[in-house]
Amino acid sequence: MYPRKFEHVSVRTVEEALDALETYDDAELLAGGQSLVPLQKTRFASPDYLIDITDIEELRYVEEDENEVRIGALAKHTDIQQANPIQDHVRLFSECIGEIADWPVRNQGTFGGTLAEADPSGDYLPVMKVLNPTIELTGPEGNREVPFEEFYFGMFTVDMDDEEILTGARLPKLQSLVPDAVAVGSAYEKHAERSGDYALVGVAIVVGVDTDGLVTEARVSVGAVGPLVRVTDAESVVKGTTLDEDALNAAATAVEKTVQPDEEGSEGEYKEAMAGEFAKRALSSAYDRATEEL
Amino acid sequence: MTDDTPTTTVSVTINGEEYVRETEDRRLLVHFLREEVGLTGTHQGCVVGKCGACTVLHNGVPKKSCMLYAAAVDEDEITTVEGLAKRAEMNGVAMKTREGTTFHPLQMGFKQNHGLQCGFCTPGFLMTATALLRENPDPTREEIKSAISGNICRCTGYTSIVDSIEWAAARLREDEPAVADGGIDSTPCEGCNCEIADDVEGNDE
Ligand SMILES: Cc1cc2nc3c(=O)[nH]c(=O)nc-3n(C[C@H](O)[C@H](O)[C@H](O)COP(=O)(O)OP(=O)(O)OC[C@H]3O[C@@H](n4cnc5c(N)ncnc54)[C@H](O)[C@@H]3O)c2cc1C
Ligand code: FES
Ligand code: FES
């Protein structure tokens, strides 16, 4: 369990990091290391140089704008989970982070590292799918912004050049996703074998309601079951309902039909069924949270 | 070390003392602590971030030392289980066993409440619990369980660990002055009429 030899290069600013990426061939950025260190130990990653960006303080922030919350790439999971703008305006993300690994890992793992890694069983992806934040990158050619929808190609693959650094992202406040609603609720539900394990199913939900408690708009996304998906059929069947039993069942059926688990046979069927079940649970709690605010 | 092995001179404050060591860039913090500094209280279990035996405080925050490179904590502060008693002394909350060993209330809690059997996992639990009680002096049992969910114990079944942490939390909230040598604490223990609360040998019956 020892990584192959590498040289540790410490940088303190984004500029230094960009210079280092240009100078050193076969280099990887080290942010929290909670994905990279295990990959190095198992020799799935054996870079010659590690450019340690952990101490770039300018990229460690969680700040609120009018319609957005801005998160720096080096904000730790715990920083984000506890930040008021996230708890107040992007609740499901705080809830999602509470499901990642355990406290010590969340104290070290970073926002940017998690987005860059794009682990298909990671908890961020379904949340990012419903939020579609703007991802901020910088590279030798300057700064660049991409919506998450274009940034994320598929598992472990994102639109990012070898010499680029992810500097942060801007997450929309939930209310701005459902402009016609008078109240909004959100939820993240994870199904895993044990607490702290990677997800078997992860479901992210945003629900907007009108004054009568009818759903004006919903966003439903499922991760860890085959490709990351938005389940638009589930979104349309719950629209205009009070999310009664029938609406929840119809949504669950839509989810089960849409997801395409990688596993065959009973394992795949199990994941499909759990995706439906956890979508129901998440829809219910998001809806309850929305109507509580009426 | 051969010439082509990249090394870094790491200067790190561990339990209040500064250590400077030249170490391989790929050296994990857990191995640095155990093999280069000689502090073997921090245990190595899984080395993949799952068991928590290697938990230390990094600038006051609990982290798994098998998931950090030593070179990455240069100029930082680390607290290991060896530093707990000293820390308790500094904060005026230290306790003494009858044998005269100085303990942090959490260590005493584990001793009193059978929070350990083989003890392999204990340093990790103690470090996580130390950070928890600083952040939240009055945690519920659920909050304790959530905080220690990254620490695995194969022996105790956890109930006694949660009891131990609750016990220490209660002691720390009472804000008792440092307990005098001999383990005499002014609070009578529950369940027996003796006056010695913190000496398990004295009380056990
Ligand atoms: C025991 C354990 C359990 C875990 N369980 C979960 C879980 O349940 N759910 C979950 O979602 N995650 C889980 N994780 C992963 C954890 O969330 C990681 O923190 C995260 O995936 C990676 O973040 P990091 O900062 O540690 O990245 P690193 O490991 O430092 O980096 C990951 C990759 O991203 C690159 N990178 C890092 N930062 C940047 C940047 N700013 N710009 C460009 N590239 C960058 C690196 O070069 C590397 O290739 C777990 C990890 C562990 C150790
Ligand atoms: S040895 Fe570090 S978590 Fe197990
Ligand atoms: S006491 Fe033996 S592993 Fe916890």
Automatic annotation (TrEMBL), chain A:
Pfam family, one: FAD_binding_5
Residues covered by the FAD-binding PCMH-type domain: 1-176
Molecular function terms, GO-annotated: FAD binding; oxidoreductase activity
Gene3D superfamilies documented for this protein: 3.30.465.10, CO dehydrogenase flavoprotein, C-terminal domain (3.30.390.50), Uridine Diphospho-n-acetylenolpyruvylglucosamine Reductase, domain 2 (3.30.43.10)
Highest taxon of the lineage: Archaea
Keywords: FAD, Flavoprotein, Oxidoreductase, Plasmid
PROSITE patterns referenced in this protein's UniProt entry, alphabetically: FAD_PCMH
Identification of the protein by name: Xanthine dehydrogenase family protein subunit M
Originating organism: Halobaculum magnesiiphilum
UniProtKB/TrEMBL annotation, chain B:
Pfam family, one: Fer2
Entry protein name: (2Fe-2S)-binding protein
InterPro entries (alphabetical): 2Fe-2S-bd (IPR002888), 2Fe-2S-bd_dom_sf (IPR036884), 2Fe-2S_ferredoxin-like_sf (IPR036010), 2Fe-2S_ferredoxin-type (IPR001041), 2Fe2S_fd_BS (IPR006058), Beta-grasp_dom_sf (IPR012675), Diverse_Oxidoreductases (IPR051452)
UniProt entry keywords in alphabetical sequence: 2Fe-2S, Iron, Iron-sulfur, Metal-binding, Oxidoreductase
Domain 2Fe-2S ferredoxin-type intervals: 8-84
GO terms, molecular function: 2 iron, 2 sulfur cluster binding; metal ion binding; oxidoreductase activity
Keyword Metal-binding among record annotations: yes
Family annotation (Gene3D superfamilies): 3.10.20.30, [2Fe-2S]-binding domain (1.10.150.120)
PANTHER family according to UniProt: OXIDOREDUCTASE WITH IRON-SULFUR SUBUNIT
